[in-house]
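Quick one: structure tokens for this chain, please?
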Amino acid sequence: MGKYLNEPMEELAADLIAGLARLKKGYVDAAEKLARIVEPQREYPSEFVVYRITGFRDRAAELSARPMPGRALHTDLLRLMIGICDSMAIRTTDYNEPVYDAAALARHFHVSTKTVQRWRRRGLPARKLVFPDGKKRIAFLESSVQWFVQSRQSQVARSVRFSQMTESQRADIINQARQMAASGTCCLSDVAKALAAGTGRAVETIRYTIRKHDAEHPDQAVFPYLLAPLDEQEKMMIYRCFLRGVSVPALAERYRRTRSSIYRIVNEMRARQLLDRPINYVFNPQFELPNADELILKPITKAKARPAKPASARPPHDLPPYLKALYEVPLLDPQQEHSLFRRYNYLKYKADKLRKRINVSRIRTAQLKMVEKLLVQAHMTKNQIIRANLRLVVSIAKKHIGGPQTLFELISDGNVSLMRAVEKFDYSRGNRFSTYASWAIMRNFARSVPRERYQLDRFATGHDEILDIAASLHIYDPNEVNIPELRESIDAVLAQLSPTERSILIEHYGLIEDSQPKTLEQLGKALGISKERVRQIEIQALKKLRNILSPQEVDLLT
């Protein structure tokens, strides 16, 4: 169910869906009756809409008094019908008239199911009903269909006429498509658009005709390469090329696929990565409260500047500037610490809950973006906690100097323990995080985990550019060592840029495994633009990313 265009309708829908089940069918029928008389050019008050659907006038006092445009109201009424049907099981036998599903209605009018979908977008009322086979699917009452046909006679007649394609017309389309495809420069999408413009038929009709012919006659296929599905390696290569900044039209031409299929492959790989990725969090019953978003994601009060500490608490003079800067980061008070940990785990809880609803065979881009956004925000909250506790690692590491490890090796190992402690700390028990983290860091120093040290050394020497771009995006602290998570988060935000901007950042900072960073001059020659123009695009891209990842965006205040 889509989002409502009018806020009063969204409030009304929530109330009706949560209402008595015995009244819901009446609400659905009343919504359709109102949709039939709504005029697009007029505006309708909330009181009128509520009365026509529920039969009560006092409900309008709880809704906005702003009038609703007729066109938007009509769309919302159709969505309301589906929303209420989704909340309960209304059966086809509850109606004393014939009921069609999409396939049956298409056969009745000798049109395609795509045409039926277009009719729905143009105002054909639909419900979600339980059919005799026990399955719930989109349904159309005969009375609804008759009303739509009478009110849209010319459109329906045009659809029926165009769908009744003769064999000679189909053969002519196939022949023209074969001639265009023979040039090797046209993909299915280009051919369909060109033939649609020449024949006056819908692009989808042309595409469906060609695909059906190829499936039924594979030895005479117009686009034989479309019959063979891409393997997993090819899909991953397409996805990596997309992240590197290769445009979708270029990928479609390279792999001889339609642009829509390239988008589907990219989204499929994004979805699979999200489904394969473990999302661990510390659950709290507050996460399931109805007002959890308002309670947990509200703004967090910034830490107040603390009084100057004694000389013993000041950073030692022999520390490098980066470590000295850690002592300038304000410590968190108990309330701030509790709020940040609660937010961190709640964001991952929401991401995991939304991720479980992802269907790889029917991917929704908005759903993927929301999961990625929640994970990036969780990482940013995690790093806010880490920054406020990094001085703790330094202070403990200094006490363990004298063994085989240097101070910087100890700090690196301690940072690994600190990050793991953030992931496992249960804030609801009332303990301070510093106590839990100190125990974890000292235990790590005692056991000495060389694997993490080697990983950190490799990361610090071979991925400096990744750290620079991550720090400029305010996503990761320079001590972050989880390269897969860092890659996923950077990919998620880089996907918001244009192909040129994304390509320049990736190539300049060497954000691809086993690749060397390129200079601005090299990038300019490759793109056919000046070195200064490349610099301008890079600055513009970084500015755009900072706006995307602003604190307001992180806090989910919108």
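Confidence is low (pLDDT under 50) at residues 59-64, 307-312, 449-483, 551-558.
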